[in-house]
Amino acid sequence: MKSPFFKVDIINSKGKSTDITEKISSFVYEDSIEEDSMIKLNIIADFAKDLADDANFSMGSVLHFQFGYLQGQISKVHKARITDISHSYGETITMSVTALDIGNVIKKATSTRIWKKKTSSDIAKEIADSWGMGFVTDATSKVWDSLPQGNKTDKQLLSYLAERETDGDYIHFIRNNTLYFVKRGLGSKSAYTYTYGQDIINFKTSFKESSAQPTAAKAKVVVNNPKIGGHSVQSASPKTEKGGAYTGKYKNVYQIGGKKVGRVPIEQTDKEEKATKKGFGKPIIDPTPSKIEASNLANSKKKKATLKTLVADLQIEGNPSIEPNTIITINNVAKAHAGNWYVIKITHSLTTGGYTCKLDLSRNAGKKKSDAEAKPTKVNTSIGIKPSAQKSENTVKVYEKRNVYRADGSGKVIGTKKVEKK
């Protein structure tokens, strides 16, 4: 029998840690690549009034927390800074606390720094180092000769860089005070397989063609024009998508204004080429210094849009090891919904009712074919392990005190010792 648990410590200004776990009635952790990762706590009514007057429990205080299963899988230690505290005085006193990942600070300060002779991953690493963060990257090769930050925050600069990297495949996010500047994990090996009727609590899909943004096809480019002694503005379209990975076989094609042409295989077809030449979707008004950079930008916008069309919510038994920007596999559902999905966000919820996870999933291609027939390229068909097969590498050991008796058989207790509880 699995025993879910969470542990929360609050760290005061002097670095002293105080365990507040027993004062918490519910624990929710949102782990996302598109939004701020955050923890939400509800405080037990009996402690709400006292904590309101506790100087250590205030805005800006840092929380360290873990969650998972006793004698089973547990998460890493996460760190967050309290940004919101609210009280309500009704029949009982209620108190709720919200804390954002401490890496959230990169959204606040702006800079006029000029970056010279640096790659995007070099710049991202220096930003991470300046804030005392960890850093994970897929190294980039393009060198920026001179790139002014121009009063952007570090987060805004990272977004600017990610959108202009090769084929628009890069993203950036902060998780557990670590800055990630990496490629979308669409081509990564599936981490887990969940099967309807076995380990899925609920699986809800939604095709959002009506609300999805049309696929962007053009970006404005500012280029030198020696004939007129100044600059001119041109446009660039995304390249034919020979690179990248897909979680299905077929994607939508749009014309000008967002009108859908149809569903076509991932491999480029005459139908899609004609749509591209016409210029489908909304133009990106974001001048860039080169057509290659503009093409990357257009590709980035396009890939973001396709990931908004086919989405799903998956509810499962709690899994502290699952992470965003990864792939999971869904089995025993309709063919249109089976296969691999991209994980955007995980919401871990621990209450008296147990531990569950809700996953926000997305797909950049479907599995239903249209009239066009062609073999898709680079479809991710990997299959993940079953949740029950995962290794319990990070485990919590539970100890209990036991008496130590004199060896002469007299039964006299001479002390105690800690013994692992089985």
Key terms:
422 residues; mainly beta; 13-stranded mixed sheet
Describe the structure.
With 422 residues, the protein is mainly β. Helices cover 13% and strands 43% of the residues.
Number of H/I helices:
5
Overall mean confidence score, pLDDT: 78
C-alpha geometry? globular
Number of strands: 27
What is the distance, rounded to the nearest whole angstrom, between the alpha carbons of the first and last residues? 12 Å
Largest sheet features:
13 strands, mixed
What's the gist of this structure?
The protein is 13% helix and 43% strand. It has 422 residues and is mainly β.
What is the topology?
Elements: E1 3-11, E2 17-19, E3 24-32, E4 38-43, H1 45-52, E5 62-70, E6 78-89, E7 93-101, E8 110-111, E9 114-119, H2 120-130, E10 134-137, E11 143-148, E12 152-153, H3 154-163, E13 170-175, E14 178-183, E15 192-195, E16 200-207, E17 219-225, E18 230-236, E19 250-254, E20 260-265, H4 270-278, E21 284-288, H5 291-306, E22 310-317, E23 327-331, E24 339-351, E25 354-363, E26 399-405, E27 413-420
Helix pairs in contact: 2-3
